Amino acid sequence: MNAIKSILFICLSLSVFDTQAMAISSLMLTNADNQAGVFTLDNTDEITYFLKTSVSKVEIVDNEIIKTPYTRENLDSWGIATKPSKLVIEPNMVKEILVESICGDKCVTDRDQVYQINIQPVSYSTEGKEQSKISMLFGFSPYYIVPAKESKVEYQLDYQGENIIAKNSGNTMIDIVIDQCSKNGTSITNTNTSSNGKGGDESDRALCKANFTILAGRTRNVHVPKDLQRDELEVMVLNHDESFKEEITLNRGE
Question: Between vectors from CA 4 to CA 87 and to CA 186, what angle results, nearest 5°?
Fold first, then answer.
């Protein structure tokens, strides 16, 4: 399996996320390799975008997400860096942002290291005229995760009403997957099938599958989509590379 894996908070079988006419390859990327992680940006607009990137370290403290921006003042504690930090994407062009580890021997490996990559537009002028579309510009803030060297998966799931209370007390992120799609792609939760009796397209599959990511040390109240709710709900719990994989049945409480 490719060690660089795209994971969504709620997976709807999509791999590209659009904001106006700009798309990014992933909103959450895990990278267990020593090689750089890659985010791909695709500009399908008719204007040129000038972008800058910044990084925030993400930590869980008392179940709260704390984000610490990287600045010159905390340069010695930086774990990763983006390359390039500034870029220009012309119309119909694709550019990559590399995320490289720079912590060397200081890298923490006994627990997931979580970062947020902030990709923001900057205003610019051409021939003395301010870019007229600046008010429509976008921003992306995908997560980038360097998994623990050795996964220690510990979790609790409590299915109550329409929600799953998920507590991740391990040292690494987990995915909770609800998959009610048949192997041939037919949507169990969607009765709108094609005339030949086979399942529909990707939108059909999206209705029968959901994926929730729980960061290490985090407790989340996860809402189960109505079409997927069952009194006995089968779920799968995975770590980033599926070296841990467990199927369980949750009984719904009141």
Answer: 110
120 pairs with which residues across the strands?
Answer: 52
**φ, ψ of residue 117 in degrees (nearest 5):** -100, 115
- Residue among 157, 173, 142, 145 at smallest CA distance from 221: 157
Q: Which of 56-60, 122-126, 146-150, 167-171 has the lowest mean pLDDT?
A: 122-126
| Cα–Cα dist 243/189, whole Å | 29
- Round to whole Å and give the CA distance between 217 and 63: 7
Beta strands in 74-218 (DSSP E): 80-83, 86-89, 93-101, 113-121, 125-126, 129-130, 143-146, 155-160, 163-168, 174-179, 209-214
Strand 28-31 relative to strand 37-43, pairing: unpaired
pLDDT digits (tens, 9 = 90+) for 46-104: 888 899 999 999 999 999 999 999 999 999 999 999 999 999 999 999 999 999 999 99
State CA 237 to chain mean position distance: 16
Distance CA 90, CA 46 (A): 8
Cα–Cα nearest to 220, from 171, 167, 173, 172: 167
Nearest in space to 211 (alpha carbons), one of 236, 190, 232, 185? 236
Distance separating alpha carbons of residues 54 and 85, to the nearest angstrom: 7
Rounded Cα–Cα distance for residues 23 and 135 (Å): 18
Tell me the β-bridge partners of 232.
251
Tell me the one-letter amino acid at 218: R
Three-state DSSP at 53 gives strand
Mean pLDDT of the chain: 83
What domains sit in the chain, N to C, each tagged with a CATH number? 4-146 (2.60.40.10), 155-251 (2.60.40)
